[in-house]
Specification:
Layout (H helix, E strand, L loop, with lengths): L1 E2 L3 H11 L3 H11 L21 E5 L2 E5 L4 H21 L8 H22 L6 H25 L5 H23 L7 H24 L2 E2 L2
Antiparallel strand pairs: 1-4, 2-3
Helix pairs in contact: 1-3, 1-7, 2-3, 3-4, 4-5, 5-6, 5-7, 6-7
C-alpha cells in the first residue's frame, strides 16, 4: 500500500523547498555592506546589524554596516517560520517512530532559532542574540541526521545523503564553536554548518512527498 501526500504535506514541502532563498538573501545583503565583509571570517549575523558601528565579539570589535539589514532579518524570521511549520506539516511523512519525532522537534527548534535571530539583531543585545540563535547551529545539523535515520527504510537514498550532509554540518558547527575566540574562519565554519542543510532540504521535501509504504 502507499499513501499519497495530502494538502498539508504538499504545503510543508513547499515551505522547505524555498529554504535555499536564505543563501541568496545573504549574498545580496553582503553585496551592500559598506564595511569590509568576508564570507570566510564574518558571521551571518553581521548582516543583520541595524546600525553602523562595531560589534563587540569576545576576540575584539568588528566594524559592520549593513544597509540591507532589514532584508536579512525578515529572511531570518520568514524562513524560520517556514522551516518550523514545514516540519510540522511533513510529520506524517516521517512515520511514527522516535527518530521521526526527534527530527521534527529539532527542525522546529532550528526554525524558532532563526526567528529569534531576526527579531534580536546582534547589535541590539549580543548575549540575547547568541542565546536565541545558537539553537540553529546545533539543532539543524542534528535534525538532518535524525531525518535520515527516520527514513532509512522508506527512502534509503535520502538517508545516505542525510548522513553526508549531517556529518559535514556537524563538523562545521563543532569547528565554529571551537573558534569563537578568534576572528579567523568563523564565517566559513558557520556556513559549513548551515548551508548544506538549506541546500539539501528541497531534495528531502520532494523525496518525502513521494509515495511511501504505509505501516
Amino acid at each position: 500500500m502507499s499513501q499519497s501526500p495530502g494538502p498539508a504535506a504538499r504545503l510543508g514541502a513547499a515551505l522547505w523547498v524555498v529554504q535555499p532563498v536564505s543563501l541568496l538573501v545573504e549574498i545580496l545583503t553582503a553585496a551592500r555592506v559598506t564595511t569590509p565583509y568576508s564570507f570566510l571570517d564574518n558571521t551571518i549575523s553581521d548582516l543583520g546589524v541595524t546600525r553602523c558601528g562595531t560589534v563587540e565579539y569576545r576576540f575584539g570589535p568588528v566594524p559592520v554596516c549593513s544597509p540591507w539589514h532589514d532584508l536579512m532579518n525578515v529572511s531570518f524570521v520568514a524562513l524560520g517560520v517556514f522551516l518550523a511549520v514545514g516540519a510540522l506539516l511533513l510529520c506524517r511523512r516521517l512515520g511514527t517512530g522516535v527518530a521521526g519525532r526527534v527530527a521534527i522537534g529539532l527542525w522546529v527548534v532550528a526554525g524558532l532559532g532563526s526567528v529569534g535571530t531576526g527579531l534580536v539583531p546582534l547589535d541590539r543585545d549580543v548575549d540575547l542574540h547568541v542565546l536565541v540563535s545558537m539553537p540553529v547551529l546545533i539543532a539543524q545539523p542534528l535534525a538532518v541526521l535524525a531525518l535520515g535515520l527516520a527514513v532509512r527504510r522508506a527512502h534509503p537514498g535520502l538517508a545516505r545523503s542525510a548522513l553526508v550532509v549531517g556529518a559535514v554540518s556537524v563538523a562545521g558547527a563543532v569547528a565554529f564553536l571551537a573558534r569563537v575566540d578568534t576572528p579567523d574562519l568563523g564565517g566559513l565554519f558557520e556556513r559549513l554548518a548551515l548551508w548544506p542543510g538549506y541546500l539539501w532540504l528541497p531534495a528531502a521535501a520532494l523525496t518525502l512527498l513521494g509515495h511511501r509504504r504505509a505501516r
